[in-house]
Amino acid sequence: xxxxxxxxxxxxxxxxxxILLDAIPFILLGVIMSSLMQMFISEAWIxxxxxxxxxxxxxFAFLLSLLFPVCECGMIPVVRRLIAxxxxxxxxxxxxxxxxxxxxxxxxxxxxxxxxxxxMVYSRMGLALFVGLCIGLYVYYFVRKxxxxxxxxxxYATTSPEVSHTHVQGNKWLSVMEHAGSEFFxxxxxxxxxxxxxxSIQALVPRDELLAIGQGGASSHVFMMGLAFVLSLCSxxxxxxxxxxxxxxxxxxxxxxxxxxxxxxxxxxxxLLSVFRWRFVLILALLIILIxxxxxxxxxxxxxxx
Amino acid sequence: MQESKRLAxxxxxxxxxxxxxxxxxxxxxxxxxxxxxxxxNMSVYVKISAIGLLMMxxxxxxxxxxSVTGVREACDCEHIPxxxxxxxxxIYTLFLxxxxxxxx
Lengths: 306, 104
Fold this sequence. Notes:
The structure holds two protein chains of two kinds. By secondary structure, chain A is mainly α. Chain A is built from 15 helices and no strands. Chain A has helices at residues 3-40, 43-49, 54-67, 72-84, 89-98, 104-113, 119-142, 152-156, 172-204, 207-211, 217-231, 235-244, 251-263, 266-275, 278-303. The radius of gyration of chain A is 20 Å and the shape is globular. By secondary structure, chain B is mainly alpha-helical. Chain B has one domain (1-103). In chain B, helix 1 (3-30) runs antiparallel to helix 3 and helix 1 (3-30) packs parallel to helix 4. The radius of gyration of chain B is 16 Å and the shape is elongated. Chain B: Keywords: Membrane, Transmembrane, Transmembrane helix. Chain B: The chain crosses the membrane at residues 12-30, 42-65, 85-103. Chain B: Residues 13-103 form the DUF1980 domain.
């Protein structure tokens, strides 16, 4: 009988579309903003605005995160553009990591999902900021060689603002639309691939197997990291998936899920690899895993006394 | 294939894909299945994206037309689609996969 197969296919379709539909508004927003920045922001402005002191620089990145609530899907083309325009690497990296979490939209979502546990909201924001701080300082002090993948994008972007890049006589806004379209396809292929893989896993693995890992202990954190990595959801969706696990999993492991997921998952790893060299992405990944693991455990002990 | 014609083909395919996604979202809205797929707070933004996607799709069509009639010069910036047939077929198939699942 085809009925069992049919529900799996149906589950797959639903999961796939949930992920894509959640992501598309943010990707569109991201590519449009990236194109706008390419057209209208000159590198001199960036250099003027960016603080020299690393701590101030990291603070600047936090401020950007608060002002520009974009999901990680939309963020990466924007940051690529900014770094190519002269933004220091460490600020861009902090923005990529912290931006998806520390913004008003996600704050509201987390508060809504965890109404009975408001400390979850502050823990999530606090841990994200802490990870951002550590990695920002690391990149500032230890990363010497330029990890950007050499592409015409980075080479091209350093032309002077006078050479305004329009394809059809004069109209900047149409150029924005054109660049946004190309970037959408650049980024979109990673989104769709990640969404397809994620949806397959979610549709094929039985729920109770996923839930079989219980409370507490390192295994629940490791499991949550793995799950967050594979699910590759935007940070607002992460919130609601995590709250659905609230009865079964420890608060600390949910925190791991909600901080690790937006920073590093299958989909965003692919996107990062399209922008940075793999060694750099590996270093980032290891740092994120380490700091989130330690941080979440520490918070779990102090806030919930486990 | 002449460069402008090759680009025009890419623009046509991309325009169709973008418009396809826009239609898929509209389809979901019409069949009232949007709430099954996204949170209620997001549904407004998804609908707005449908409009954005449609606009971008139509503009890709314009670009295709301009490429063929020679108004637009092939620019040498980073957004050139690759020359490899295999890569392009793979990528566009990837984009078409969800659309096929919606409409079939």
